[in-house]
Amino acid sequence: MLYVSNEPRLQLCFVFTYQLVYIDNVVISISSSCSRLLEIKTQLQPMDSDPPLLSTYRALFDARDRERIDPDAIALTAASDECELPLIDLDRLNVAGHDGRDATEKCKREIVEAASQWGFFQVVNHGVSNELIARVREEQVSVFRRPFAKKATEQLLDFAPDSYRWGTPTASSPDQLSWSEAYHIPLTPSAAPGPTEGATRHIVEEFSTAMSRLAHKLAGILAEGLGEGDQGYIKEKCTCNTCYLRLNRYPPCPIRCGAFGLTPHTDSDFLTILHQDHVGGLQLMQGKRWLTVKPNPHALIINIGDLFQAWSNNMYKSVEHRVMSNAKLERFSVAYFLCPSYDTVIQSYAEPAIYRKFSFGEYREQIKEDVRLMGRKIGLTRFLAVQSL
Description:
The protein has 389 residues and is an alpha+beta fold. The chain has a domain at 81-348: B-lactam Antibiotic, Isopenicillin N Synthase, Chain (Jelly Rolls, Sandwich), CATH 2.60.120.330. It has helices spanning 8-30, 34-42, 53-56, 58-66, 97-117, 130-144, 148-153, 198-225, 232-237, 306-311, 360-374; strands at 81-83, 87-89, 120-124, 164-166, 181-186, 244-250, 260-265, 271-276, 282-286, 289-293, 300-304, 321-324, 331-338, 345-346, 358-359. The strands form three sheets. It has an eight-stranded mixed sheet. A five-stranded mixed sheet has the order 1-10-9-12-7, with no helix packed on it. It has a two-stranded antiparallel ribbon with strand order 14-15. Strand 2 (87-89), helix 5 (97-117) and strand 3 form a beta-alpha-beta unit. Helix 6 crosses helix 8. The N and C termini lie far apart (66 Å). It comes from Ananas comosus (Pineapple). InterPro entries: DIOX_N, IPNS-like_FE2OG_OXY, IPNS-like_sf, Iron_ascorbate_oxido_reductase, Oxoglu/Fe-dep_dioxygenase_dom.
């Protein structure tokens, strides 16, 4: 029996859940092949807001099924080990007096150690209020609930026309596909929004300002950890006009063989601040194995980007990470990227330098070219000071 609520949002959720359960039951009783699952799924009516991931990329999964590739032998399998990232209380940076100085220095050392050993860590008492995070989440859900046709064709607020993205247009195999949709928002000054758009734009700007403040605080501590007492470089090069905010949604994925919510990658910035919900799915590479990050909705996740690894001469680690899709639950996250202007030159602070000098614009263009030709990002190995023959 299907319970139907009179409340529109609840009704939509119950209907969608019923479809997913029905799909799972059919797969178990009729067929375990990916192609059969795709055939069944396309006979059902998807949520009006969902991008057409299944129909668009069906051929990729059909090909994988025809080749009889063991899904347990490829990279789409989930990691078996769960980890808790180092958790750092930033409130210790604000303690006064002699004891406060000791607490501050200890907190800074923990940040430097986590960035060096893990490349990832979590922070609490970070200065971004729970109320603001909740408001962003509410707006984010509302934005993604818009009909797909509108998301794909109508510009959201005054954001760039191509800010909405879904899937992976360049994917030629399932391991190159990201089962997700996102708004990639450059944080440039806005034009005056309309009366119905003002609230969303205001919340995005308020949240971005708070994330920027935190990002620069952490970047300053990390620069200090390198012996770079003058943190003016990052403050000067990474302004509100050069950074990005990304709103992510990972729809439920019914593919038995699995799909990436976001393909394995490193971030092409100085550092990233991420807030994720309770669903989980984020994994990172440690010691040649994937570890699943235990969700902590009360903390913000910090990860080092490629530019900080290059600038720190490999003292800080830009770690490969990915998101695994969930068969039944949608997942939301929001990420802030601390980026410089395209003409900013990245140069290792120490000698001998591991990487040659390069501009951020050059780095971005090389990534685009690699993705176009090879289907994936190569990253910093393209910019080694001494290339292996």
